[in-house]
Structure formats: C-alpha cells, structure tokens
Design a protein that fits this description.
With 88 residues, the protein is mainly alpha-helical. It is globular and about 35 Å long. The protein has a single domain, classed as Orthogonal Bundle (Non-ribosomal Peptide Synthetase Peptidyl Carrier Protein, Chain A), CATH 1.10.1200.10. It has four helices and no strands. The mean pLDDT is 93.
Length: 88
C-alpha cells in the first residue's frame, strides 16, 4: 500500500516539474503511468522528474535500470522514495 501523503507530494512535484497544470490532479492516482496511457511523458520529461525527485527528497538514482523500474507510475516513485529514505 502506497503512502498517500507521499503519493500526493510526488504527484504535485511531477505536475510542477514538467508543467502539467492543465491536468486535473484528482484524475492522477498512484497507478497513473508516467508514459503511455497516463501522463504521456517523453524521455526528457522523465529525466526532469528524476532530477526533481532527487532534489526534493534527497535520494539518488544511480542506475538507469533502477530508474526504469521505479519511475513507471506515481506509486512506484513514492515507494522508491520511501524505501530509499528508510535506508538513509
């Protein structure tokens, strides 16, 4: 189960970092994909999200495969941040 306040924080960070203010935040959930069928972000947008998450939460994504695994949905990002912070 995702931490709902962290999901909300990640969602707001993504909306701000890649300028998705035209979308209804209520329509974006933990299961919303960053790519096809969801927010439709391209690779540049995803990179901006990665940088924003690293800066906001003080976590580091050191491996592209790890990034691909964790940056699929809003919820997988929130889970990654929660796990990374618990190891600090």
């Amino acid at each position: 189960m995702h931490n709902q306040s962290l999901v909300s924080e990640v969602k707001n960070l993504i909306i701000t970092s890649v300028n998705l203010h035209h979308l209804d935040p209520a329509a974006i959930t933990a299961d919303t994909s960053l790519r096809e069928g969801g927010l439709e972000l391209d690779s540049v947008d995803i990179l901006e999200v990665v940088v924003a998450v690293e800066q906001q939460f003080g976590v580091k994504i050191n491996d592209a495969e790890v990034g691909k695994q964790h940056f699929r949905t809003i919820g997988t990002i929130a889970d990654f941040v929660e796990e990374a912070k618990s190891k600090q």
